[in-house]
Specification:
Layout lengths: L10 H12 L2 H7 L10 E5 L14 E6 L2 H9 L6 E6 L2 H7 L4 E7 L7 H12 L2 E12 L6 H18 L10 H4 L3 E9 L4 E8 L18
Parallel strand pairs: 1-2, 1-4, 2-3, 4-5
Antiparallel strand pairs: 5-7, 6-7
């Protein structure tokens, strides 16, 4: 029988291990565009882990969705300051199926890398339906299609590691750029850890996607 993805076993060491390997680059990537979010925005954080990402939205109402019970326990112990937090333990499919909430901002940080291409695209569509027109989507993850030998070796090792311990179903990073093209505009982009990790800020428009310049010189406050 195929096992479900489960981060309970790895939860206590996931973040220390991340900092050991990436030197804090993952945390920096998920926080980079947080200052661009209006304090009045309602924020959805998908695959919230230990909840540290919520600390970058101190004035916002934040919904944390995380399947791992141990991760949720860690999140509840995290000092969120004045942030109004809603905790939900379960998959994003379960959350969206039980809630009619819509959001001004969505953060997916190292979330899509857990899924094969087809599943990642389906999850994107589900989330897109809950993001209001004019809203922002903060994306932080590993670069798809990386060509460097050391990058490929590191990603392959990570996928093997998490496949064994957490039973993730992906074996490579899905390519998400085509999912944005119909109704999103790229406002900013920043690379980390020798360009293996990327943070992007997308704006949901009514118009069809149009390419725009975006690089690390983008102002972190729109």
């Amino acid at each position: 029988m195929k096992k479900e993805t489960d981060f309970n076993l790895i939860a206590p060491v996931y973040y220390p291990l991340s900092r050991l390997v990436f030197g804090g680059a993952q945390e920096k990537a998920q926080a980079w565009f947080a200052p661009s979010v209006s304090p009045s925005d309602k924020v959805l954080i998908v695959g919230a882990g230990n909840g540290a990402a919520a600390t970058h939205f101190p004035e916002n109402e934040v919904f944390l969705v995380e399947p791992s019970s141990r991760m949720i326990r860690l999140a509840r112990r995290t000092n969120m300051g004045r942030t109004k937090i809603h905790f939900y333990q379960g998959t994003i499919e379960q959350f969206l199926g039980s809630s009619h909430e819509t959001f001004d901002t969505i953060l997916t940080a190292f979330f899509f890398d857990l899924f094969p291409q087809e599943k990642a695209e389906k999850l994107f569509v589900m989330l897109d339906k809950r993001l209001r027109t004019g809203g922002t989507w903060i994306f932080a993850d590993f670069q798809a299609g990386t060509t460097g030998f050391l990058h490929r070796l590191l990603l392959n090792t990570m996928y093997r590691f998490f496949s064994y311990l957490s039973h993730i179903t992906a074996s490579e990073m899905p390519e998400m750029k085509n999912s944005w093209r119909r109704s999103y505009h790229l406002y900013g982009q920043k690379h980390f850890f020798h360009r293996l990790i990327v943070a992007q800020l997308w704006k949901k428009d009514r118009q069809e996607y149009q390419s725009s310049p975006a690089d690390s010189s983008f102002s972190r406050r729109l």
